[in-house]
TrEMBL record:
Protein name: AAA+ ATPase domain-containing protein
SUPFAM superfamilies: P-loop containing nucleoside triphosphate hydrolases
Lineage: Bacteria, Pseudomonadati, Pseudomonadota, Alphaproteobacteria, Rhodobacterales
Domain AAA+ ATPase: 44-197
SMART domains from the UniProt entry: AAA (SM00382)
Transmembrane segments annotated in the record for this chain: none
Record-linked Gene3D superfamilies: P-loop containing nucleotide triphosphate hydrolases
Length: 211
C-alpha cells in the first residue's frame, strides 16, 4: 500500500459526501427549528410544515438539524437521550407500520411477540413509553405527502396519530414534503392549525451534494 492512501481515501470520501451549502431560506428554517426544539415544554407545542418542490433541500435541512441534535448516551441513567427523531413517512398511511418504524429508529429490542402478533394498541403504548424515556423534544416526518397514497379514512387516522404523539409527549411536530403535503396536512383541521407553513421557493440557491 503506497503512502498517503488513507489520507487520499479520506479526501475522496469527503468529496463524495453530502455537503451542506446554506442559503437564506434554509437558514431561516434551521433557526426556527432550533428555537422550537430548545423551547420549554407546554401543553400545545409549536409545529411547522416545510414544503416546496422536490430537490429544493427539505431533507438536507432535516438531516442537518438531526446531526446537531444527535443521540447522546447518559452513563448516569444508562439511557441514550434522543432530542430529535427523524423519520420518513411510510409509503402509505399505515399506523402499525409507522409505529414499527419508530421502534426500529430508536433501536428498541425485539419483544417476545412477533411483529405480526403486536396490534396497534400495544405498539402505541410501547412507543409512547420508549419515546418518553428518551427525552424527546421534536419529531420530524419527511415525505409527509406519502399520506395521499391512502384513502381519506386512512389519512385521517394517520394524522390523528401524529397529533396524538405530539400532545401526549409534549413535543414539537415538524412535517416536510412537496407542495401536495399541504393538502395532506389540511385533512386534519386541528393539526393544520398548529403547524405553521413555510414554503421553500424554487428560485433560491439550494443545498447540494458534490460527487
Amino acid at each position: 500500500m503506497r503512502a498517503g492512501t488513507t489520507e487520499e481515501d479520506g479526501r475522496i470520501a469527503l468529496i463524495q459526501s453530502d455537503i451542506w451549502i446554506g442559503f437564506p431560506r434554509a437558514e431561516q428554517v434551521l433557526d426556527r427549528l432550533q428555537g422550537m426544539i430548545e423551547a420549554p415544554r407546554q401543553t400545545r407545542m409549536p409545529g411547522l410544515l416545510v414544503h416546496g418542490a422536490s430537490g429544493i433541500g427539505k431533507t438536507m435541512i432535516a438531516r442537518n438539524l438531526s446531526r446537531k441534535y444527535a443521540p447522546e448516551y447518559d452513563p448516569a441513567s444508562g439511557i441514550t437521550r434522543t432530542p430529535l427523531l427523524l423519520l420518513q413517512a411510510p409509503p402509505a398511511p399505515d399506523e402499525r407500520r409507522f409505529y414499527l418504524h419508530i421502534l426500529a429508529a430508536v433501536g428498541a429490542p425485539a419483544t417476545a411477540l412477533s411483529a405480526r402478533a403486536q396490534n396497534v394498541a400495544s405498539l402505541e403504548v410501547r412507543v409512547i413509553a420508549l419515546l418518553r424515556d428518551l427525552g424527546l423534544r421534536m419529531i420530524m416526518i419527511d415525505e409527509v405527502h406519502n399520506l395521499l397514497a391512502g384513502t381519506h379514512r386512512e389519512q385521517r387516522r394517520f394524522l390523528n396519530v401524529l397529533r396524538y404523539l405530539s400532545n401526549e409527549l409534549e413535543v414539537s411536530l415538524v412535517c416536510l414534503g412537496v407542495s401536495e403535503a399541504v393538502d395532506a396536512i389540511r385533512g386534519d383541521i386541528q393539526l393544520a392549525r398548529r403547524l405553521d407553513e413555510h414554503h421553500l421557493p424554487t428560485g433560491a440557491t439550494m443545498p447540494s451534494s458534490r460527487t
